Amino acid sequence: MTTLLTGASGFIGSAVLRQLLKHGHRVRVLVRKSSNTANIKGLPVEIVNGDLNDIRSLEIAVRGCDAIFHVAADYRLWALRPAEIYQTNVAGTRNIMIAALSAGVKRIVYTSSVATIGLPEHGDLADEETPSDLHDMLGHYKRSKFIAEKEVSWLVREEGLPAVIVNPSTPVGPRDIKPTPTGRIIVEAASGRMPAYVNTGLNLVHVDDVAKGHLLAYNHGKVGERYILGGVNMTLKEILEVIAAITGLPAPKICLPHNLVLPVAYISEAIALLAKKNDTFITVDGVRMAKKNMFFSTEKAKKTLGYRTRPVTEALRDAINWFRDNGYLVSGSR
To answer: Could you point out which of 43, 213, 236, 239 has its C-alpha 20 to 30 Å from the C-alpha of 230?
Structure first.
C-alpha cells in the first residue's frame, strides 16, 4: 500500500512520516525542490518533487496511492504577501483533494487546525462542536485554514471525498526547523531572551502525540468528522515556568498588558515590511489572538480514537533539547 504525505519536511509532517513508517506504510512524499529536506534525510521514502499549485505534479504524486495524509500548510501569522498563505492553504488543499478524487484514493486524513474552531465567551473549553464563522478568524492564517476546512467538508458532502479531519492544537517537540511561532517562544525563553509575557493560554501537546493521533484518525476516524488533537491547557506564564525549570534560567516576572504590546507589534510589522522580510516574531494578529485563552477539549479523540498524550514537561524538554542540539539556543540553558 502506498501512502502519499504532504508536508513531510515540516514540523508535524515529519512526525507523521515517522509514524507511517513505523506502522508499515510505504510512503511517498511530495516536496518542493526548494524545501529544506533535513527532516526526511536518510528515511526510506519515495520523493516526488512538486507543488500543491502544480496540478500535473499532484496527478503524478497521487497516482497509485491508497491513502493521503495532507499535512502541508503555510503557518505564518504575518506575511509580506498574504496571498501566498491562501494559495497554499486554500487553493493547494482544494487541488490535492480534487486530484485524490480523480485518482480514486480510498482514505484521506486532512490536517486542519484548532484555529478553525470558535472560542467560548465565558472561558469554557472549546470542542469540535463550538461554532465559528469567518468573521471570528483573526488573521490570514486562521482565515485560510477556516476556508480550506470548509472546502474539504463540502467535498466530503457533495463529492464523496473520503476524508477525516484532524485539528491539532499547539504542538511542540523535535524537528521544528523553521521554527513555528510557538517554537520561537520556546527558543527565546530557553535562551534567556524573554523578560516579559502577556496573559494568554495555549493547549500544548507533543508533536509525536499529534502524529499518533493522525494514524488513529486514519484507522478509526469517521469520514467527514473532525477530531481535536490537543494536550494540556496552560497559561503562557505556566509554560514559561516549566521552561525555566528545565533550563535553570529564571522565568520572566513581568506581565505586560496586551494594549502595551500592540504598538510594538505594529512597529515590528512595519520594520518587516520595509525590510521586505517574509515573517516577524511579534505580530498584530498574534497579540490580538492572545487576548483569549485558546483552551480545547480532546475528549472526542480520546473516546472515539483512543487518543492519548504524554506529560507536557516531556514535550517541552524534547523541544528544548532539539533546539539546543541543533544550534538554536544562544545561552546558558542546561
So the answer is: 43
